[in-house]
Amino acid sequence: MIPKSHPRYESLMARELIVEGVRKGITSTQGLIAQGRGEAFDYLIGEKTTESALRAEKVAAAKLLLAKKPVISVNGNAAALVGFELIRLSELVNAPLEVNLFHRTEERVNKIMGHLRSLGAKNLVTKNDALIPGLEHDRAKVDRDGIFAADVVLVPLEDGDRCKALVGMGKTVIAIDLNPLSRTAQCATITIVDNIIRAVPNISKFAEELKELEQEQLKDIVMGYDNKQTLSLAIEEINKNLISFIGRS
Ligand code: ATP
Ligand code: MG
């Protein structure tokens, strides 16, 4: 049992969830490494939602509400860390959940779907009858009526190649990635440089607030959004934090 008073409580709890995910067979062992990389960047960003990330989260919520066919992609880390919160967001913006894995096995896909169903998910797309062009077979498998047909895809923790391929298909890709330098962060349409644990509830909170707005008002929120600026601001934040550390040691 990790005491709440532990200075690294949240990070340790996230590790527990990922380890538990591996034990249940929903998270890949490589997912442990991905979480470690994310944690390192979270440290540098100050383990908080920055102002620029919050803005990206609001724009993401507006985009999801404006979408004709939004889909939320779920991998093993996302299912372990924020399964329940993703279901809530899926309901708020009326976007089905689709399990889409880098290290894909049908067994793990089924385990993740079972996990999401046990948490109450009803809106799942489950076929793998289409391929994202330009990727080798397993990573490319998607549902023809899900990610393949979507106009807006939320991809928490996506791989760079697949993010690029989805953008290449003309989709709006919203990525959640703590590393502003990753290929995913660089190629997504909207990059949320924040921990998935903070980002998903924040997007849901905005979706709840913005739900009643007219389309034109939602478009105003999205208009003028500049992802290059979001990434620059994230890097500046890291820079600022590093410089403040120089003074302390
Ligand atoms: P890319 O393929 O985009 O170049 P990568 O190969 O460096 O990235 P991957 O292993 O493909 O990384 O994906 C993991 C990404 O997810 C990393 O960029 C990491 O920072 C990020 N990440 C891991 N855990 C979290 C988390 N809890 N919240 C947000 N981002 C995370
Ligand atoms: Mg990668």
From TrEMBL:
Pathway(s) where this gene product acts:
Cofactor biosynthesis; coenzyme A biosynthesis
Q: What is its EC number?
A: 6.3.2.36
Q: Which reaction does it catalyse?
A: (R)-4-phosphopantoate + beta-alanine + ATP = (R)-4'-phosphopantothenate + AMP + diphosphate + H(+)
What UniProt keywords are attached to this protein's entry?
Answer: ATP-binding, Coenzyme A biosynthesis, Ligase, Nucleotide-binding
Q: Which Pfam families match?
A: PPS_PS
User: Which amino acid positions bind ATP, per UniProt?
Assistant: 15, 37, 177-179, 183-184, 195-196
Name any Gene Ontology BP term.
Answer: coenzyme A biosynthetic process
Molecular function terms from GO: acid-amino acid ligase activity; ATP binding
State its role. Answer: Catalyzes the condensation of (R)-4-phosphopantoate and beta-alanine to 4'-phosphopantothenate in the CoA biosynthesis pathway.
Q: Spell out the subunit comment.
A: Homodimer.
Q: According to its UniProt record, which protein family does this protein belong to? A: Belongs to the archaeal phosphopantothenate synthetase family.
Q: What is this protein called?
A: 4-phosphopantoate--beta-alanine ligase
